[in-house]
Design a protein that fits this description.
Blueprint (H helix, E strand, L loop, with lengths): L2 E3 L16 H6 L13 E2 H14 L11 E3 L2 E3 L3 H8 L15 E3 L10 E4 L6 E8 L7 E5 L8 E4 L2 H4 L3 E5 L2 E2 L9 E3 L5 E6 L5 E6 L7 E7 L11 E4 L5 E6 L5 E8 L2 E9 L18 E4 L5 E6 L5 E6 L7 E5 L15 E4 L5 E6 L5 E8 L2 E8 L5 E9 L5 E7 L4 E6 L7 E6 L2 E2 L5 E2 L7 E4 L5 E6 L5 E8 L2 E8 L16 E4 L5 E4 L3 E7 L2 E8 L3
Parallel strand pairs: 2-11
Antiparallel strand pairs: 1-19, 3-4, 5-10, 6-7, 6-10, 7-8, 8-9, 12-13, 13-14, 14-15, 16-17, 17-18, 18-19, 20-21, 21-22, 22-23, 24-25, 25-26, 26-27, 28-29, 29-30, 30-31, 32-33, 34-35, 35-36, 36-37, 38-39, 39-40, 40-41
Helix pairs in contact: 2-3
InterPro entries: PLL-like_beta-prop
Protein name: PLL-like beta propeller domain-containing protein
Keywords: Signal
């Protein structure tokens, strides 16, 4: 794959240009997903991190000199090292020191990513709660490293064994992560960043002045004429924590830009030639909006629909590398998949990159890697029909992939994997009817976005035909029924205006954040309203 580096870099906020070290980028294997060490971490990320040790078949050991090293860091191979890795701590704590970063909760309050700890009545031990095996909530499913001669695994505990443990919650857990395929990301310092293609074809960056700040600074990081105006820009973090953006160019290529170092500019950019180099050599014409996600091996990957409805997929040669490879995604019969909408991508609970996209007959095409970080692709068509626009995809607290999509009837379709990581799906229609602050049925006009809130409930946001925002959430984490309201500004009690589809993220304090064109909304406190409306300005 050819990549042409631009000879200029756009300086952001007075930074000076320092040439990136390609050798350093090539050698670094540790990457950040959405969290930073000792910072807030989502339940979704905890599930992905712990799944990596089960994938790697990590054997138990208390030897500090032989830690397990993978894309999520270097940690001791025992129970507390496993939990330290899951919570993205800066080092491997012990069962004696873990209480310094967590607080006690009740059994009834256990959610995926919480801990069970025993420090009396036998050998000290800890494991991570995943879900309940039974509806009576007596037998938990736990991920753990627990005994010499065993490997990291997920297994059920009996109720009698459970009662010898005390439940705890990490002090900095957050329920939400940026909606996959979003134009919003969080840098390594915890600041939110939003990338936009302006009317004159420049890339504009709006970023918080500090973590969880209510003030923003705005600047141009790629000059006018470089990208297609008005087409959404995708963002993701690379293997060394640098923020990247992906956009389409006016001459049918892809523009990629990145921070010179994690959390700071200047910004560098390059043009990616849309040419395959895996099975054969072919140059394609990208259309629509690109999407990006990091894979289980720490490589950035991108996806974009082509002019003839195929799915073009590219990835870094090595984590942090400036060399890219690409292919056309094919099904098990060797046929190129055909799309009518843009792909939405995410990692599943097993670390496999997965995509959902609308087909020409209004159905959803689902595809996933055969194994974490590698093809071929397993592709199938879901039962949902009458889909318009693009779906939103994410993970629920149990680790199931979920989607929300608008139907031709203006209603909201919701689907989920039958079990975490499964290729079988179930679906329903979520009524677009408010039951908080009045009862009203609305018609939907935009593409929905989805995430978890601070409590672990799935939440969605979608624009209505009269340019308001319908916001819905589960009654309990992982459980129906659904509640909904129209978002209002706390100061005026007026519905927040939304002329464009919302973009969704969470700030470093765990509050959900909705970004519109030149305004934004944020929760009053993590997991709860009222909502505050503000301007995004430099």
């Amino acid at each position: 794959m050819r990549i042409r580096l631009l000879t200029t870099a756009v300086l952001l906020l007075g930074a000076t240009l320092v040439a990136p070290s390609t050798a350093q980028a090539r050698d670094l294997q540790i990457f950040q997903t959405e969290s930073v060490a000792n910072g807030p971490v989502s339940r979704q990320e905890m599930l992905l991190r712990t799944a990596s040790w089960i994938r790697d078949k990590v054997p138990y050991s208390q030897d500090n000199s032989t830690p397990h090293v993978n894309e999520f860091g270097s940690y001791r191979r025992d129970c507390s090292g496993y939990l330290s890795m899951a919570w993205h701590l800066s080092s491997s704590l012990s069962t004696a020191t873990l209480p310094s970063v967590m607080h006690q909760i009740t059994y009834d309050d256990l959610q995926p990513g919480d801990a069970l700890l025993r420090r009396s009545g036998g050998v000290n031990h800890t494991g991570m709660f995943i879900r309940w095996e039974d509806t009576a909530r007596t037998k938990p499913i736990i991920r753990e490293e627990y005994q010499t001669g065993r490997i990291a695994e997920e297994r059920p505990w009996s109720n009698s064994y459970l009662k010898t443990f005390t439940p705890y919650r990490y002090n900095k857990v957050v329920g939400a992560t940026p909606s996959p395929v979003s134009s919003i990301g969080q840098d390594v310092t915890g600041r939110l960043m939003r990338f936009e293609a302006t009317a004159d074809g420049a890339v504009q960056l709006s970023e918080q002045t500090g973590p969880a700040s209510t003030s923003w600074q705005v600047g141009t990081i790629d000059p006018p004429g470089g990208v297609v105006p008005g087409v959404a820009v995708a963002t993701a973090a690379d293997s060394i924590g640098r923020a990247y953006y992906f956009a389409r160019t006016p001459n049918n290529k892809l523009r990629v830009g990145w921070e010179n170092s994690p959390g700071s500019g200047p910004w560098l950019s390059a043009t990616i030639e849309p040419t395959t180099d895996l099975e054969s050599i072919e140059t394609v014409q990208p259309v629509g909006r690109p999407t990006a996600v990091i894979d289980a091996r720490g490589k950035l990957t991108y996806f974009v629909r082509t002019s003839d409805g195929r799915l073009f997929h590219g990835w870094q040669d090595q984590p942090g590398s400036a060399t890219w490879h690409a292919t056309i995604i094919r099904d098990s019969a060797g046929q190129a998949v055909q799309l009518d909408g843009d792909p939405m991508v995410s990692q599943d609970v097993l670390g496999r990159v997965a995509f959902l996209a609308r087909t020409s007959d209004g159905k959803l095409l689902y595809g996933r890697q055969a194994a974490p970080g590698t093809g071929p692709w397993v592709v199938s068509t879901l039962a949902a029909t009458g889909i318009v626009g693009n779906p939103s995809v994410g993970l629920d607290v149990s680790g199931k992939l979920v989607y929300f999509a608008r139907g031709t009837d203006g209603k909201l379709q919701h689907g989920w994997q039958s079990t975490p990581g499964a290729d079988t799906w179930q679906s329903t229609v979520v009524p677009a009817t408010t039951d908080t602050d009045g009862v009203e049925t609305v018609q939907l006009a935009g593409d929905p976005v989805v995430s978890l809130d601070n409590s672990g409930k799935l939440t969605y946001f979608v624009r209505t035909t009269d340019n308001r925002i319908l916001h819905g959430w589960q009654d309990m984490p992982g459980s129906d029924p659904w509640h909904a309201t129209i978002i209002r500004d706390a100061a005026s009690n007026q519905a927040a205006p939304a002329a464009v589809d919302p973009a969704l993220s969470t700030d470093s304090a765990g509050k959900l954040v909705v970004l519109l064109q030149s305004t934004w909304l944020y929760q009053h406190a993590p997991g709860t309203g009222p909502w505050h409306l503000g301007a995004i300005s430099g």
